[in-house]
C-alpha cells in the first residue's frame, strides 16, 4: 500500500505577493487527504512546519528575506528527507516555490543515499532560473532551480550537503511561458530541457510528456514540482503570478495521467496556491483533482 505524507509549509517568504502561506489549509479544505484515501492510499498528515514570519522587507544584496528563506528551506529539507527514509511519498503543500530548494535537495540526498537516479518534472509558467544579478525583485521564488543547480547564495545552495544539489540534466520543465531575457540566456547556457507552451502548442502535450518521461527505469526516483501557475489562469486564478496561455484542463489531466502511467512518482511539491487571490477555493479543488490523476484516477476505463 502506498503511504503518502502531507507536509504543510505555510509561508510566502520567497514570493512577491502575500497569501501563498494559506495554501496548505486550502488544500486540506479541498479534501486532499480523503481524496487520496479513496484510492486505497494510506495518508499521514504531518501538519504544518514552523518557520520565521514574513517581514515583508526590500531586498538586501539582491535577495529578499534570505535568512528566513534559508530557515524555511532547511525545515522542509529535514521533513521531506525524514519521510523518504520511512519509505513514504512526501507531498509538500506550499507555500511559495522557493521551498523547492529544500524539497528537491532532500530528494537528491535520498537518491545519493539509495543509489537511485533522479528525474525532476518542473511544471510551471516560469523557469525559476533567476539569480540576484538577473532579477531586480530579489524574490527567491524565481530562483529555486538556479539554486539547486549551484547558482545562488551559500545559505541556499549548500542545503542538503552537496553543491550543486542536482544536475540541470535531470530536469524537464513543462508549460513555461514567462522567462526574463537574462534568465533565458542562462537557461540555454546551462542546457535545461524546456517544453515551453509553444512546443506544447505545436507538438501537443502527449509528445512533450513522452520526451519528458523518456528513459525512466525502475531505478529512477521521479519528483514532480507542480507550481499551480502552470495551469491557465482561466481555470486556476488562485496564484500570485498570473500568466495567460497555460495548459487547459484536459492538457493538464493528460500530463498528470501520463506521469501516473509510469508508476514512478516518488515525491511531489504543490506550490504557489494563493487562496487570497482564488475564487471560492476553485484552484485548490482543481489542484486536488489533478493530484488524484497523478495517483491513478483515469478518465478512461483502462484495463
Automatic annotation (TrEMBL):
One of its GO terms (molecular function) is manganese ion binding. Its EC number is 3.5.3.1. Pathway: Nitrogen metabolism; urea cycle; L-ornithine and urea from L-arginine: step 1/1. Gene3D superfamilies: Ureohydrolase domain. Mn(2+) 1 binds at residues 97, 128, 227, 229. Mn(2+) 2 binds at residues 124, 126. Binds 2 manganese ions per subunit. PROSITE patterns: ARGINASE_1 (PS01053), ARGINASE_2 (PS51409). InterPro entries: Arginase, Ureohydrolase, Ureohydrolase_dom_sf, Ureohydrolase_Mn_BS. Coiled coil: none annotated. It comes from the Bacteria. Pfam families: Arginase. Keywords: Arginine metabolism, Hydrolase, Manganese, Metal-binding. It catalyses: L-arginine + H2O = urea + L-ornithine. Its cofactor is Mn(2+). GO terms for cellular component: cytoplasm. One of its GO terms (biological process) is arginine metabolic process. Belongs to the arginase family. This is Arginase. The lineage of its organism: Bacteria, Pseudomonadati, Pseudomonadota, Betaproteobacteria, Burkholderiales.
Amino acid at each position: 500500500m502506498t503511504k503518502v505524507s502531507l507536509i504543510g509549509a505555510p509561508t510566502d517568504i520567497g514570493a512577491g505577493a502575500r497569501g501563498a502561506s494559506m495554501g496548505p489549509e486550502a488544500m486540506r479544505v479541498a479534501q486532499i487527504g480523503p481524496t487520496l484515501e479513496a484510492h486505497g492510499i494510506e495518508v499521514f498528515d504531518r501538519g504544518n512546519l514552523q518557520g520565521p514570519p514574513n517581514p515583508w522587507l526590500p531586498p538586501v544584496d539582491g535577495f529578499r528575506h534570505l535568512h528566513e528563506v534559508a530557515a524555511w528551506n532547511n525545515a522542509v529539507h529535514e521533513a521531506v528527507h525524514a519521510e523518504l527514509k520511512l519509505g513514504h511519498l512526501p507531498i509538500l503543500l506550499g507555500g511559495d516555490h522557493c521551498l523547492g530548494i529544500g524539497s528537491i535537495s532532500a530528494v537528491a540526498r535520498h537518491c545519493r543515499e539509495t543509489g537511485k537516479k533522479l528525474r525532476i518534472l518542473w511544471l510551471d509558467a516560469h523557469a525559476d532560473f533567476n539569480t540576484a544579478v538577473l532579477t531586480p525583485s530579489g524574490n527567491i521564488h524565481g530562483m529555486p532551480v538556479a539554486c539547486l543547480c549551484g547558482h545562488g547564495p551559500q545559505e541556499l545552495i549548500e542545503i542538503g550537503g552537496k553543491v550543486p544539489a542536482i544536475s540541470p540534466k535531470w530536469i524537464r520543465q513543462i508549460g513555461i511561458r514567462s522567462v526574463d531575457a537574462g534568465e533565458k540566456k542562462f537557461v540555454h547556457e546551462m542546457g535545461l530541457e524546456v517544453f515551453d507552451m509553444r512546443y506544447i502548442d505545436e507538438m501537443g502535450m502527449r509528445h512533450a510528456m513522452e520526451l519528458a518521461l523518456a528513459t525512466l527505469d525502475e531505478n529512477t526516483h521521479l519528483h514532480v514540482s507542480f507550481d499551480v501557475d502552470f495551469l491557465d489562469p482561466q481555470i486556476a486564478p488562485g496564484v500570485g503570478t498570473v500568466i495567460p496561455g497555460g495548459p487547459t484542463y484536459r492538457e493538464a489531466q493528460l500530463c498528470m495521467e501520463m506521469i501516473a502511467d509510469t508508476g514512478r512518482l516518488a515525491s511531489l511539491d504543490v506550490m504557489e496556491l494563493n487562496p487570497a487571490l482564488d475564487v471560492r477555493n476553485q484552484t485548490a479543488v482543481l489542484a486536488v483533482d489533478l493530484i488524484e490523476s497523478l495517483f491513478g484516477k483515469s478518465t478512461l476505463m483502462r484495463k
